[in-house]
Write the structure tokens for this entry.
Amino acid sequence: MIRIEAKNISKTFRYWINPPTSLKQMLTDVIHGKWDTGAYKMHEALKNINFEIREGEFVGIMGRNGAGKSTLLKILASIYTPTSGSLHVHGQIAPLIELGAGFSGDLSGLENIYLNASIMGFGKRAIGASLDAICDFADLGEFIHMPTKNYSSGMLVRLGFAIATHLDAPILLIDEVLAVGDYAFSQKCLAKIHELHNKGRTIVLVTHSPEAVSQHCTRCLVIDNKECIFDGPPDEGAKRYMALNV
Amino acid sequence: MQFLYKPFGIDIFCTQKKFLVFNLVSKNLKTKYRRSFFGFFWSILTPLLMTCIYFFAFKIVLKITIPHHLAFILAGTLVWSCVTQTILEGTESIVGNIGLLTKVPIPLHIFPLVTCINNAVTLLLALPVLIGACALSGIALSWKMLFFFPVFFLLCLMSFSLALVFGCLFVMLRDMRHIIGLLMQIALYATPVLYDARMIPDGYRLILFMNPFAYFFDSIHEIFIFGSLPSLQALLAMTLWTSSIWIGSIVFYKTIRNGLVENL
């Protein structure tokens, strides 16, 4: 079964050279007729990206800074709309672009679980069913009833990761969130993601780590200079990525 | 029928994300009053204090006579503060949630919607104070006061639509905050909030009633102070204003929403 279908995806951003952020400037621009001619320029971030991701695949996306990885991930998560091309996603996505998106420091850990999970698009029943597992993995003990502003950053990350990985989404999009936290925690996270993959989940991971890709992924995409330059086995992909960095 | 809750295919009331809306509203209400001594009473205290000030200025200094003057001003001020808060906070709500919108797929219009619900809930909780003030002032309570709810619902729908449009414009045009702040100041005095619509001189009546808020506040005074129902003309005008602003705002939102997150 195909989970994600990307056909000819291109993304062009419009950058304002002189952003008309004030009404006065906008009016003078319109009067001088340069409203849509010289006011902005186009920047192409992705060009003709094509791929299909099947159920149960663990795809690593690699690329240098600015290559377009994050843009691609945001398109896959339907945060951005592609300028041209089409995207079809079959199944619910848990986007882990930021851990603990929408956490409010004044709310308790428990309240934040509901808030964060509903922000990621889960309903009351789905959250209730996973609540115990989330609390167990986050391992916060009594702190779960305290406002999260009293948490250490490690605790916050643990809670955020626990929520994102224990909800029953068939597709996980993960953006370098593993870079945060200490070594032991990032290993624990990778192990958890690996376990989810073994359970048949589809995972897309954006990373800079060739080790993670060759150890865990079943497939690798390398993005460079707006285009997908490699799509194949992870070991080769990791080598291709390393070659780019020389 | 479907057009009412899903106009142009947009799930404008976020019916598919009810639990998220509920969580965002409860988060806002909880964090707004947690750790403050008066808590929820702040949202009643402010209009009460403003009522006293207006009462002093209009009744004691300017010696204007309006029946049940204190309750009259309170009714106007409470509802007006709900409307302005919805519009002002709603204008900033999309830009203010930039952190979420660029990290999670979430519809933009949920933020003005949540702002509107927050303020509506606050007003409904403050309603007993208004009813109490009416009773103290010697107004007989009647079933006709229930008519406030449909009027208020239309008013909320209109405020939400305006907040949605201004919120989208604010993404591109940061002047919006100042413009709206100023317009709401003007609108307060151009709307029969603090004075009775019957006091408007004939020459100005037509102009003032071109203001979409005018019929709403006139009706609210009719309902709470004069114990009568809003006139048929007022009902028609309110429905027309609300539906045209509502449809206009959704058409505007539909054309502008693609690419808005990229511009945040």
Summary: Chain A has a mean pLDDT of 84. Chain A touches chain B at residues 13-14, 20-24, 26, 74, 77-81, 93, 95, 97-98, 101-102, 104, 106-107, 111, 114-115, 118-124, 127 (CB under 8 Å).
